[in-house]
Amino acid sequence: EAGVAQSPRYKIIEKRQSVAFWCNPISGHATLYWYQQILGQGPKLLIQFQNNGVVDDSQLPKDRFSAERLKGVDSTLKIQPAKLEDSAVYLCASSFTNTGELFFGEGSRLTVL
Amino acid sequence: QQPVQSPQAVILREGEDAVINCSSSKALYSVHWYRQKHGEAPVFLMILLKGGEQKGHEKISASFNEKKQQSSLYLTASQLSYSGTYFCGTENGAGGGADGLTFGKGTHLIIQP
Fold first, then answer.
1. Per-residue model confidence as pLDDT tens digits over B41-52
2. What are the beta bridge partners of residue B4?
3. Are the CB atoms for A23 and A92 separated by under 8 Å?
């Protein structure tokens, strides 16, 4: 069974530039999450989708971050404009139900200079 | 509310036991445990639901004390492969996945030969 796919794996940008990350969850998983993991810390939930609807985006900095999940499958997380403190690994995870095991992708490491 | 993990770091010899604790200031519906190796995605270990269930898999088990809002992860006869950072993720309140998981800062476990 294919795992959660994410791209790009690495991205380096200047502050105030924009960046987009893509996630393809495991087939059949209705719930998709984006987490931000700053070096040395635990993952922080940014947004949770159930199919193509948003369940929780209370910790998403909406002035610069946006996310969508088209047709309840793939998802894109965008940052515009980026700040230095956005440097982190962005992890996408999916689960069959919204109370089950999370399957994480390998993450997209963002460095903002 | 981010759960608090203790200890922050543990260094063991192969074959020794370890206990990692996770506590929350809010009522817990469930506790998830994940292990993350350096540069890799977090990997699911187990879920515990309120009711004081103790679950285990081989030499890794966990308990959940609903009244104390605490969970503990027990690693018995540790192996080199157990090295990594352990995160607890908590789901508060009524559960149902509406709030997603909030992860602690992690416990770094180093197993030496």
1. 999 998 888 765
2. B23
3. yes
Residue segments in chain A with a per-residue pLDDT below the cut of 70: 1, 98-99
pLDDT at A97: 76
Confirm or reject contact between A98 and chain B (CB < 8 A). Answer: yes
Q: Which residue of B has its CA nearest to A55?
A: B98
Judged by DSSP in three states, A30 sits in coil
CA distance B3 to chain A (A): 10
What's residue A72's pLDDT?
83
pLDDT at B95 over 60: no
CA B59 to chain CA centroid, Å, is 14
Closest CA to A104 of B31, B45, B86, B43: B43
Q: B21: burial class by Cβ within 10 Å (0-12, 13-18, 19+)?
A: middle
Please indicate if any CB of chain B lies within 8 Å of the CB of A48: yes
Angstrom distance (rounded) from CA B44 to CA A104? 9
